[in-house]
Amino acid sequence: xxxxxxxxxxxxxxxxxxxxxxxxxxxxxxxxxxxxxxxxxxxxxxxxxxxxxxxxxxxxxxxxxxxxxxxxxxxxxxxxxxxxxxxxxxxxxxxxxxxxxxxxxxxxxxxxxxxxxxxxxxxxxxxxxxxxxxxxxxxxxxxxxxxxxxxxxxxxxxxxxxxxxxxxxxxxxxxxxxxxxxxxxxxxxxxxxxxxxxxxxxxxxxxxxxxxxxxxxxxxxxxxxxxxxxxxxxxxxxxxxxxxxxxxxxxxxxxxxxxxxxxxxxxxxxxxxxxxxxxxxxxxxxxxxxxxxxxxxxxxxxxxxxxxxxxxxxxxxxxxxxxxxxxxxxxxxxxxxxxxxxxxxxxxxxxxxxxxxxxxxxxxxxxxxxxxxxxxxxxxxxxxxxxxxxxxxxxxxxxxxxxxxxxxxxxxxxxxxxxxxxxxxxxxxxxxxxxxxxxxxxxxxx
Length: 446
Prior knowledge:
Blueprint: E1 2-4, E2 10-12, H1 14-33, H2 40-58, E3 62-68, E4 72-74, E5 79-87, E6 93-101, E7 110-114, E8 116-117, E9 124-130, E10 136-148, E11 154-169, H3 173-176, H4 178-193, E12 202-208, H5 220-226, E13 230-235, E14 241-247, H6 250-253, E15 255-256, E16 259-260, H7 261-278, E17 282-288, E18 292-295, H8 305-313, H9 324-334, E19 340-344, H10 350-364, E20 368-374, H11 377-384, H12 390-415, E21 419-423, H13 428-441
Helix pairs in contact: 1-2, 7-8, 7-13, 9-10, 10-12, 11-12
């Protein structure tokens, strides 16, 4: 929050500028038609200038104005910036504030807002929302305040540097969503009652078979020995190691629905990581482009989830091709036991994906790999367009070819034993959680 008590210069308004522009040709006409009346022109100009000065004086001064900037926000979320002002006179009209900020906050780095009067206090206030487009630290650098006199001819204005910063974190709105919290609460409530009857395959005990149980759980050998039906009770697998790996290269920096793919991926990964921590597993984050960027230690407690959020905020955007060979080799060297590696990446063609496929092939030999990619909705839009002209037809054919090549690469990964999740950005988090539970319950990690 920044407070100002400014010195206020007086300037003409747009209305005054239009009057001056209109008066100039009128003065020329007077000089041409009635030269003896030439004195009218300078007299009128003096009167107009006097009105501008008087109007600016009547506008009064601004006793104090405040710009409130939040310290933290999340990428893609509406973030309010508020301006409050208190003027010395009620005659001040149409006060307007302009704020300059980092372009990563959106709106091309600049916004204006009208300040409305509060009938009770007489103070003026206004607010506008910015929608951060990228993670990082965004500076709010400068502020301007301007207000008119009662005639709208003279205005007072001031400007000051702000030197405020907004820390932009990954989007955690899916983690806070009521649906996910309800799901986790219900699953944790039932975890104690169903601990023995988990969905895993690790044997825990035998219990007497009751109607409604899955008949596939019947232990026929034990039932034959006791002359009564008994069912196997299993305990779900826990304490798995899960690594969320992010390709921070050029393809992942491309926007999808107004936000870089990497930010969509980070939001989905943190949501799944939160679920995994609640389920008793260990989670780490790994980011890379031309070289590894971030590698966190494994977190085993959901109360330390903020450490994952901070590490994800540090993933940088790099407009370069990622080095999968170096990055995945470095990741393999750090892992001492078999883990689930959830790799977020994207590619444009089979040639660009060749090194990625080879590196993932070596990773599959020691670990379980889940490849996650956001469906390219732009290609699907081009394919579905009505071919009304030759340009549209050519674009549709090219998009269909690229989409076909994309499916070939994903099919190669599946044949190598890699589990693949491809979905639109707004569904990728839930698809990832579903696949995580399938892998966890199949005891495939450990």
